[in-house]
């Protein structure tokens, strides 16, 4: 069971960065490669260790506000800055300022403002301000690194394209990029190793982890874990208005079921964190499927069935989660072994996973979806009863849901109402 202790800041950010990469193979590792480029240029500029940490962490999540595949692919156009680049940067700011606020005493943070301005052009120095706000030097470095990475074409021999990328960046000095940073980039890019290292993700990740270092270790108690998991859940759920509060509903329903099942206060906090995190793998599911106003076909269901495996894979990279990973990742397993993706039987499915599974089903059936309205409570209870009777789901957990159905529905409804208000504020602020 996780105890109050420390969490690797780099591990957390790397997990989120990898999760966002799931949106499309075309954007995979863009953020980590951007972080590597920025850090190498920062070394040439002799920036402090704290500045390098900040730019690395911000770069690894700089596109977290790009909710859909379309917006991510647009950001991979070098001339994207001439279109409408600031919307996804502002959305990223809104997410990351919550993480910054949680760990405001840690000098390694400050990601939000760097991401907010990462598409501001230098404009011969006028880019020091944007909308009357000061633009940090690190934001301009992130902008440069982002555009360099976009120019690097996957699948092409890296040294073949180095000269063309360097020339294109040089041509944009002054207008798009701070000339001092362009000069530092040219020095870093003059080394063949700079381009060759970009081809090896393991080397990139090892370098970035070393740069963040021990200063990236943060104290995190169970309340902190719940807060952090909630933010991650929002990043996943906000991709679709139909799922904008789903993880909140699952987390609250699971917490109540866990209380009724005799879980301790700490275990209930863990189950809420699992509820927030259970669908992180859904970033691998295209928005078109999430928003489809009809039942999914077989091909689409095959895509959906990948998400709990991705949840398991992503959470494996976060140390200290303990049982939370299994509770979150096994929510589509069934006691008869016919679930997915691991086809586990009853003996391998812990009670926490069974609770998350029932909470997920209960929440999904009661909330509106693109193809139907939420079902009446009586109909939901009938479906749950059938799942228990056929040996699919845990009879004890479903019995608790049936016995306390109105209380469970009210808890779920209240959590989702609060979440809906937060989602409305988020959309309005953007």
Automatic annotation (TrEMBL):
Database matches in Gene3D superfamilies: Hypothetical protein af1432
UniProt superkingdom: Bacteria
HD-GYP domain mapped to chain residues: 5-201, 221-416
A Pfam family recorded for this sequence: HD_5
InterPro entries: HD/PDEase_dom, HD_domain, HD_GYP_dom
Record-linked SUPFAM superfamilies: HD-domain/PDEase-like
UniProt name for this protein: Metal dependent phosphohydrolase
Source organism of this protein record: Desulfarculus baarsii (strain ATCC 33931 / DSM 2075 / LMG 7858 / VKM B-1802 / 2st14)
Organism classification: Bacteria, Pseudomonadati, Thermodesulfobacteriota, Desulfarculia, Desulfarculales
């Amino acid at each position: 069971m996780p105890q109050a202790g420390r969490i690797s800041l780099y591990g957390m950010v790397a997990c989120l960065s990898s999760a966002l990469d799931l949106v499309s193979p075309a954007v995979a590792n863009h953020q980590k490669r951007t972080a590597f480029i920025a850090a190498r240029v920062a070394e040439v500029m002799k920036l402090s260790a704290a500045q390098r940490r900040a730019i690395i962490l911000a770069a690894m999540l700089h596109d977290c506000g790009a909710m859909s595949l379309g917006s991510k692919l647009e950001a991979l156009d070098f001339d994207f800055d001439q279109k409408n680049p600031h919307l996804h940067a502002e959305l990223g700011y809104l997410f990351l300022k919550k993480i910054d606020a949680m760990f405001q005493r840690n000098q390694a943070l400050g990601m939000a403002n760097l991401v907010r301005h990462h598409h501001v052009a230098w404009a011969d120095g006028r880019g020091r301000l944007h909308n009357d706000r000061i633009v940090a030097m690190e934001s301009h470095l992130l902008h440069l690194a982002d555009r360099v990475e976009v120019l690097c074409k996957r699948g092409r021999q890296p040294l073949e394209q180095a000269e063309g990328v360097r020339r294109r960046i040089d041509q944009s000095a002054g207008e798009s990029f701070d000339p001092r940073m362009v000069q530092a980039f040219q020095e870093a890019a003059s080394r063949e190793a700079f381009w060759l290292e970009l081809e090896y993700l393991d080397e990139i990740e090892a370098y970035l982890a070393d740069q963040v270092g021990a200063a990236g270790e943060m104290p995190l108690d169970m309340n902190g874990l719940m807060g952090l998991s909630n933010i991650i859940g929002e990043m996943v759920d906000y991709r679709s208005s139909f799922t904008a509060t789903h993880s909140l509903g699952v987390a609250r329903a699971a917490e109540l079921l866990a209380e009724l099942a005799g879980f301790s206060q700490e275990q209930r906090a863990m189950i809420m964190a699992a509820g927030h995190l259970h669908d992180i793998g859904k970033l691998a599911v295209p928005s078109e499927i999430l928003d489809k106003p009809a039942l999914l076909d077989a091909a689409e269901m095959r895509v959906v069935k990948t998400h709990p495996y991705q949840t398991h894979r992503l959470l494996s990279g976060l140390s200290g989660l303990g049982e939370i990973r299994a509770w979150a990742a096994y929510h589509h397993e069934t006691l008869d072994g016919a679930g997915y993706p691991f086809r586990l039987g009853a003996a391998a499915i812990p009670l926490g996973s069974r609770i998350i599974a029932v909470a997920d089903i209960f929440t999904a059936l009661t909330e509106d979806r693109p193809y139907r309205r939420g079902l009446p409570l009586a109909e939901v209870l009938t479906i749950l009863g059938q799942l228990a009777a056929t040996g699919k789901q845990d009879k004890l957990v479903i019995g608790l849901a049936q016995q306390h159905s109105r209380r469970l529905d009210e808890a779920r409804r209240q959590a989702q109402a609060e979440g809906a208000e937060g989602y409305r504020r988020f959309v309005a602020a953007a």
